[in-house]
Amino acid sequence: MAASNLKVPPLESGDRLTRQEFEHRYHAMPNTKKAELIEGVVYIASPLRFKSHGKPHGNLIIWLGTYKVSTPGVELGDNSTVRLDLDNEVQPDVVLLIDEQLGGQTRITEDDYIEGAPELIAEVAASSAANDLYDKKRVYRRNGVKEYIVWQVFDNKLDWFVLENGDYITLNPDTNGIIKSRTFPGLWLELSALLTGEMTQVLAVLQQGVASEAHQLFIQQISTHS
What we know:
alpha+beta
């Protein structure tokens, strides 16, 4: 096996590959932690810093993970590979999806990858110049990711996009400063609290969301899906 792997060219950022060849090279490089194929081009992630990525990533996991625990039939993934189409295989920071058996739009393949567009994807980006807001956003829109969150840490800004009539529009906070998901009823976010790291307040507002009638109806809806 080792001799065989030596014959496989390494993945390098900027390579233009098919998804099949991308996976072949990725599997031959077990020490590579994160690589993505976006519009047929390879992107390999640099080492990630704590304050600008690890910490906000962790806070997204806390928020979305708490919603997942409160919502049977919803699944959460951290840095899971997603096969979208022949030119795009991504590894989002966080995915939130509805179980396929309960009406979700993804499936888990025999080799344990996500195939199809997760209902919600969240990414931590350094700034508004990041690829997450350009090529990757177009890929997610085209493939039908219903909601897309991009946290631009250096700009202290978070954009929450929702798919409407084939395009992304921005979900804005209500008069109380809370953004409410359209796809996942009860998934509420007090934006200012997240941006300032006040996770106790973030979770308090989320608990209001999961206690709402809309969230209870959502649970009933997906649990009775045939």
